Amino acid sequence: MKFSVEKYKSINSENINKMVLAFYMRILGEDNDVSKIFVSKLGDDINSELWQEHIGILTNFWAMITLDDTAYTGNPLATHLSLPLKKEMFGLWISMFYETIDSLYIDRLGSVFKNRADIIAGNFMRNMRL
Ligand code: HEM
């Protein structure tokens, strides 16, 4: 018999926080170009102050997108313009993000995150001429 884990059927800030944490645990578990960028900026200890701050910022960011939450006040494009990003890294980022989302949210809700991530990644690449 096949058992499946119950997926989230609604989006709230608590499960967004779990999703963000799962995504970065996934990234830190890899040794690829995307994980190298994160390790170089934030280190490899997800419990560090820097990482906890980043996870809080990203939780607010996704809560802004999916719940109209107003806590996020940053400028994602400016942040990424100062990172040494390449086109291939976006493909990698997207595939790891999709995997995380698909493992946690039912399809209809997962699409909200994935569609928006696609659009933002496209905007970043266009602005970086990648
Ligand atoms: C090649 C792919 C990507 C890499 C390697 C990457 C890497 C990073 C790193 C290292 C930071 C932290 C910078 C710092 O605090 O100094 C960051 C911040 C952030 N990233 Fe990405 N990122 C990527 C793509 C994306 C995408 C596609 C999104 C959105 C869908 C995104 C959303 C954000 C946000 C919201 C922040 C916080 C910006 C702020 O401080 O307000 N990133 N990213």
Characterise the protein shown here:
The protein is mainly alpha-helical. The chain has one domain: Orthogonal Bundle (Globin-like), CATH 1.10.490.10. It has six helices and no strands. It is globular and about 45 Å long. The mean pLDDT is 97. The chain binds protoporphyrin IX containing FE (HEM). The site of protoporphyrin IX containing FE has 21 residues, from helix 2, helix 3, helix 4, helix 5 and helix 6. The site of protoporphyrin IX containing FE (HEM) has 21 residues, from helix 2, helix 3, helix 4, helix 5 and helix 6.
Individual helix count: 6
Instruction: Write down the Rg.
Output: 15 Å
Structural class: mainly alpha
Described by strand count, sense and barrel closure, the largest sheet is: none
Bound small-molecule species: protoporphyrin IX containing FE
Overall mean confidence score, pLDDT? 97
Number of strands: 0
What is the beta-strand fraction? under 5%
CATH superfamily: Globins
Give the % helix: 55-70%
The secondary-structure element order is HHHHHH
Assign the CATH class.
Mainly Alpha
**Named CATH architecture:** Orthogonal Bundle
How far apart are the termini? 46 Å
Name the overall outline. Answer: globular
Low-confidence stretches at least 5 residues in length (pLDDT < 50)?
none
Task: Provide the number of structural domains.
Answer: 1
At the fold tier of CATH, the topology name is: Globin-like
